[in-house]
Design goal:
This protein has four helices and six strands; from the N terminus they run αββαβαβββα. With about 230 residues, it is α/β, with parallel strands linked by helices. Keywords: Membrane, Transmembrane, Transmembrane helix.
């Protein structure tokens, strides 16, 4: 009897030991799984932070490069305007600004030059924020744009398509400028500002760039800074 009891107690203790060992093993696996999960989550977060930092730094670098580009372009434009302000443009015609009328009128005006470079004009200006018009526009509205400091590029049927394309691109990229056909003008390509006018044979003529640099919001402008938007559109 005593031997049987001792054998039963031994078996019970063995089972308890095995159960305890299994529980310890299970707890060890759970700890390992939690550790692996934490390490993986940390790696993911670190990766996301790394990617986010990289994207942020790249965006900042691109922003700085763009700001540097714009600053350099503005300096170049300012230098070009300064040089152009004192430049003499060969072949340019000039009219005394004091003799050009500036009254607002509500009827067509007969101008002594084609296209006009100043004089009495409509109270509404033509939009001249780089606007390119496919059809002729009223002179009296365009003259008001010149008063605001715009350069008006005009052409007739003799103008070459390549020149028109190049001038359209320049006007479109230049605030305070506009472009339209003027069938009655003598030159194929003409540029006008308040009291100033130039005829050229090609858009590649270097005087085109000088004329723009000198007269877009130039010293000849009677009303510098006045609006070139919110006026009349074709």
């Amino acid at each position: 009897m005593g031997s049987s009891t001792t054998s039963g107690q031994g078996s019970s203790n063995d089972r308890k030991a095995r159960i305890a060992a299994m529980r310890r093993a299970e707890q060890a696996r759970e700890r390992r799984n939690r550790t692996v999960a934490i390490v993986a989550a940390t790696a993911v977060v670190a990766g996301l932070v790394g990617v986010g930092s990289y994207l942020f730094i790249r965006e900042q670098n691109e922003k700085e490069r763009e700001e540097a580009r714009v600053t350099a372009e503005q300096k170049a434009q300012a230098k070009a305007r300064e040089e152009a302000a004192n430049a003499t443009i060969e072949g340019e015609r000039s009219w005394d600004a004091k003799e050009l009328g500036r009254k607002h009128v509500a009827k067509p005006v007969s101008y002594p030059m084609t296209p006009p470079v100043g004089g009495d004009h409509d109270q509404v200006w033509m939009n001249c924020n780089g606007d390119v018009y496919a059809k002729p526009i009223p002179d009296r509205h365009a003259v008001h744009s010149l008063e605001h400091g715009a350069v008006w590029v005009t052409y007739n049927a003799k103008a070459k398509p390549a020149d028109l394309k190049a001038l359209e691109a320049k006007v479109s990229a230049t605030p305070y400028s506009l472009m339209s056909p003027v069938n009655g003008q003598k030159g194929a390509l003409m540029l006008s500002a308040w009291g100033k006018q130039l005829t050229v044979d090609s858009a590649k003529d270097p005087r085109v760039a000088t004329f723009f640099a000198k007269y877009v919001q130039g010293k000849q402008t009677p009303e510098p800074g006045a609006a070139c938007q919110g006026g009349m559109a074709q």
